Amino acid sequence: MAVRHGARTLADMTNVPSVRARLAAVDEELRRLEGRRHVLLGHRAHLLSLLAAAPPAPTPPAWPAAPQRPREVAPRGAQNTLLALGGTLLATAAVVFTAVSWGALGDGGRTAVLTLVTVAALAAPAVLGRRGLAATAQTVSVLGLLLTVLDAAGAASLTGSDGFGFAGGVALALAALWTGYGLALPALLVPLPAAVFAGQFAGVCWAVAAGAPPLVLAWTLLATGVADAAVALTAARPQVRVPGAVAAAATGGLGMLAGGWFSLAARTAAGAPPPGRLLLAGAAAACCAAARARFLTAPAAVLATFAAVAAVGDAARHAVPGA
Question: Using an 8 Å Cβ cutoff, are 240 and 192 in contact?
């Protein structure tokens, strides 16, 4: 029985007319789908032509751009600005108060008020700097430096001291105080340059107070310029180097000019060597500065040449007969 069933299945599978009928039906369906595809492609091409010929769709009106809001100032910047202005006004008020009430208060009252305000002004930048108020700290530090000058004036009035000798001592004391203050608070930009500026007057004031002759004043200016050059060449901070270089050029240059003038004004052979020695000392100082800073080589060479020619030539001028 199983043999008869297997035989029928094999006969059905090998029925050639049935397979051909099915293949014909599949081919007919493929032809029908291909015809339908051609119809759809033609309809698509027609729709694309209509879309290309149609006018463009109107675009919606654009809304006007919203005006940009002005950039707001950062709260920290506004706070710094306001406090800096407040410190400036406080400094002005302190000066006006001191000037107006100078005669109304006694010596002790003036000293107590100025000392209290000065200590507060000098201590405030440390607190302000820790809170990030850099501009305000700078302004208050300037106020403190100004108040130290007023304290020095009050001390002069209290002790009855005056004259160039006392002014030289005050200049040296302020230079030392401001130097220590600037080193203690390195973020402040004003104290160290102010110390360099104050130091310019100590030697000159003492020389004037001692009744020194003009040539000694010239030597004092030259010595001050040499000290300024040493500060400018050894300092590590730009706020010290630049003021030191400017002060050295100013005071040292004045000393050299004075030496040149005295050399030209010498009438005798005995009067020529003293200013000549001043000129040679200035030339040597310029060469030493050039050895430390290479960019000063050319200016130092020119200055040393002129100073040496002036010193030696003036001495030789008196040795040669007038004819």
Answer: yes
Q: What is the pTM of this model?
A: 0.63
Q: What is the pLDDT of residues 103-130, one digit of tens each?
A: 666 666 667 777 888 888 888 888 888 8
Output the six-digit token pair for 151.
Answer: 């304290």
- Please give the Cα distance from 175 to 195 (Å, whole number): 4
Q: Which tokens sit at 266?
A: 């010498």
Q: Is 161 left (phi over 0), alpha (psi -120 to 50) or beta?
A: beta
**Euclidean distance between the first and final Cα of the chain, in Å?**
164
164-223 confidence digits (pLDDT tens): 888 888 899 999 999 999 989 888 889 999 999 999 999 999 998 888 888 889 999 999
For residue 47, give both structure tokens.
């729709």
* Cβ partners under 8 Å of residue 251, min gap 6: 200, 221, 222, 224, 225, 228
* Alpha carbon distance 86, 136 (integer Å): 8
